[in-house]
Amino acid sequence: MSEASLRKIIEEVVKSYYAVNSEASPKMCTPLPMEIPSIDSDAIPDITKTTIESYFAVPFAENKDAYLNYKKSTPARVGIWRAGPRYTTETLLRFRADHAIAQDAVFTNVAEDFASNKGWVEVQTVIKEKDEYLTRPDLGRILDEHAVSTLKLNYSTPPKVLVYVSDGLSSIAVETNAYDTFKSIEMGLKAKGISVAQPFFLRYGRVPAMDHVSEIVGSEVTVVLIGERPGLATGESMSCYMIYRGKVGNNESLRTVVSNIHRNGTPAVEAGAYIADIIKRMLDEKKSGVDLKL
Amino acid sequence: MEQILKSVGIDIGTTTTQMVLCAIKIENFAQSWTVPSVRIVDKTLLYKSDIYFTPLKDAQTIDVVAIKKIILDAYQKAKLSPGEVDTGAVIITGEAARKENAQEIITLLSGLAGNFVVTTAGPDLEGILAGKGSGACAHSESHACTVMNVDVGGGTTNIAVFNNGDAVESACFDIGGRLIQLDVNQKITYISSKMKLLIETLGANLIVGKHADLLELKKITDTMASAIVSIAKGNYEDPIANLLITNHGLKEKFKLKGLFFSGGIADCMIEKKASIFEYGDIGVLLGKSLTQALISSELPVLIANETIRATVIGAGIHTTSISGSTINYDSGVLPLKNIPVVKLSFEEEKNSGRTRIEAIKKRLNWVVHEGVKPLIAFSITGSSHYGFDALQLLAEDIIKGLNQVVESDQPIIISVEHDMAKALGLSLRRNLSKEKPVICIDSIRVDNGDYIDIGMPIADGQVLPVIIKTLLFGY
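Output (structure tokens, whole complex):
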């Protein structure tokens, strides 16, 4: 059946409907005004403003305080109520909003001027753009030629401790936390008489890129502050991976990690102070990962 | 990784003296990929002593030698020496605290009760410890409600109100079983000064040296019982209840979901075979009066886990807490005892520069007077929102505000509610000479008027034991 004949049938049906049901004009519908009315941004509440731990939708709860107390211990979606067997509209919207935050964290690039604003050099892996980064994890661990030569030039004397920042799977995580954590690590190590090399930013980096970095720079301890794969609880969580004398192809078990660095986990500055202690231990004991008993 | 702390509780009350020994188990919950998280996981009672009558030399003096013997005997029976005890509390409660040589006892017992044992007396803390020991506090937490614990002892009745596991208010009244004492012939041998006032108010016929009429005594105990009921019902205007206030009453009115009774009199509330004057006082009578008054009161009375031992168990098990696990300290100056808290309000903390420094100085001057050693714990709320630069500014302002402490020979002691002490400690040190001791701990909630003790490091030095001695609630 052609499109034209299909249209004709629909018109017939609609016409007959109006003929039977009302004396309304046979005009099908009024066109929408082209201009979309502006909406006051305050008129729409930001549903992500309340933490999921304090979101509570059970009507007529026997003991709301007790329930909220239990909820403090988990970001899981409990006490969200339902409409029949389904989510309520607000719960569904909240779920989609949190999911959107996670998606944004992965797909957004770290700002162009993020590194330069902090006086850090920016280099890149062999990956050219975001889609390639997400589909080729194997390439996210290799620095491109320009990066290799830049690092060789900038760190001509191998530093004892090198801390660098990489986007990983959450841009917002490093934009929010990396600076504070780095400064705190630096402060902690300085108090122990250990100097830290100037950091740099590696775009499109995966965790094992730190092994390549270690080989290029020759640092004794290499530390990367990298965005974690976001979940529904937060998109801002950052991890810190550390390795003693890293080499390309070494076992994952050689890495020491501190994860969950974000506002509602371990705050950035506090994590940095703790990481400084671990780095000192790694230098003293000359090992990292599962060999290093913390 | 787990560690056991041995904790002692010694309670010297108006009527009885008791001791308990407890084990506090701490464990690091951290996974290999997270920062350390040391927590108290279990508290168990190892030993409880017999209940002794508090030995008195005369009405005004406690028999120090006899107390010492009781405690040493208890240690021996528990197969433990005082040196093996890590923490705990010795408290002198009720009328005993008002005896002339209470301070002497405290000094003697600190030597007998391990290196880091709190010695204290104070009706507010007592009431809270009793409520924790009786199980009232735990009930308010597990049922997410507000409960009141009424610890009726020989000399005083200590009241504490708990909401959701937090002590929210406390009060103390001169209501107790031994405020009037009698000999075997029912002749009155002692009437406390507050009781004389009450007798006068009620026009009861009770005089020291004279035979006491049961009905006259019952007038007194019935009045005491109805005062307690008034307080539990939130009727704070009751003139008798007001007359019997020791230091202060309650302020806020609560909707109670539970009313617990502990202390020696709680045992007398339950039907017992004991004759009315078995103990030579009005205790049994008071217990009976209370039961009667409660039956008609419709108050939600609940059964306490512990009655006469509530306070001593509270002292032994519930005094010690631990700091957060990422902290910064010099162990050389530890342990530190009886440090008054100076708390900056969160509004003042959110300011910056001059305003904040002045606020700190003002707060400090409330506690530290001229010519006194400025040993204080400076407390702030903190926040997980501090970035590195903001933290540096905060550290600088604290150092400037605490200038008086910086220039003295006292350590800089900081306690923060939010998890940020390690970074704050490092930031403070940048502004201080290397020799200046700094102790910066977090996950501790204190307020102006509190005192804290900080013990030797535990769990491989990751955490410090802290005893918070809450003295007042906003009075």
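Chain B is about 35% helix and 25% strand.
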